[in-house]
Amino acid sequence: MKAPAEGTLRGIGTFLATFGIGVATYIAIADSGGGSPVCIAGGHGCQTVAESSYSHLAGINIAIFGIGGYVVLLACALLRGDAFRLTGFVVSLIGFGYSLYLTYLELFTIDAICQWCVASAVLMTLLFVSNAVRMLAYVGTEP
Amino acid sequence: MSGRRDREARREEGLQEEQRAGAAERRQRMVKLASAGAFLALVVVAVLIVVSSGNSGGGDSGNIVEAKEVDQLLAGIPQKGMVLGDPSAKVTVLEFGDLQCPFCKGYSEEVLPQVIESRVRGGEAKLDFRNYTIIGPQSKPAGAAAIAAGEQGRGWNFVELFYRNQGTEDSGYADDEFLTAIAKAAGVPNISKWNRARQSQAAIGRVEATSAEAQELGFSGTPSFALEGPGTKGVEAIETPESVDALESAIENAGG
Predict the structure, then answer these.
(1) Closest Cβ opposite residue B135 in set A48, A90, A93
(2) Within a domain: residue A128?
(3) ipTM score of complex
């Protein structure tokens, strides 16, 4: 199967990473005010997940790390060349792996689903797929 | 002429061959680098998971810690039910918390001790702990157990000690064994009576009632606070003051 043009993959990456920055920023702002994100579909899932000890890593809300990750992925999508193809792949793999773990925690440990966290996990999964395709199809070729 | 053209064509072909070989080599090198990057990414994820799992801890009924510290913190301060402090104190600080909530634990360890010393011990304010159960199914029986401890004058010892020994929320640690260990370490004098009281509909009903009250006040998380005093119009929600100074200042304002 022929891979999409690199420009298309970079466009998808730009869109997804921008969306991800928005989602992670909302979660971080909601947490910084001492509250929690509001689940649009209702219920206490977002609140329960935000109250969970797993919502922080070394005392820092993981949404802050998320913002950092999405910003790096946005930069990788906007810039050309192998360095950014590789960095995008590695960072999105980290984000994807950790999102999988967080989703597992939501389902089996915290017993609550936060739709904002699910949205972020879906975005990170799509970013991983687009960055992996970009890396496999175009790494080592001319920018 | 023809020989010269052939030589140029062969040279051109050679150059193209060299470029193709160079590109293939470069791509191979990059794929190797990507494999190393993927390995590094998986190591980073594993480290993150280990660090994240380390957030848990506590919740061990066989190892209840800091009972002495809690005793010292609360020594000499009157307790009635879930109210800590002089019953005639002009300001009442209502704390809506979930015993399984890690933020409540943090607040209980970092903010409340100073406020207890500065405002409660001197009789300016009293603290009223009310359950707002949001974490999981064990939050309600834990809250009822605190209320039952309060009936024997050890409610705040129970709450403070629970927080200091809190495990990972809703991981199943807050079972009968854990609650009993906390009650004993908190100095509840009659454990049989406490056992009956914590399982009573009255205690469970109170947990449900204060949870409903928290929702009526518009709280979306724990710990959340409300104040009642001469300077307030009835019970006023103040959400979660982020520091000792913020809570103390709110108490001062509520004092009129």
Answers:
(1) A48
(2) yes
(3) 0.84
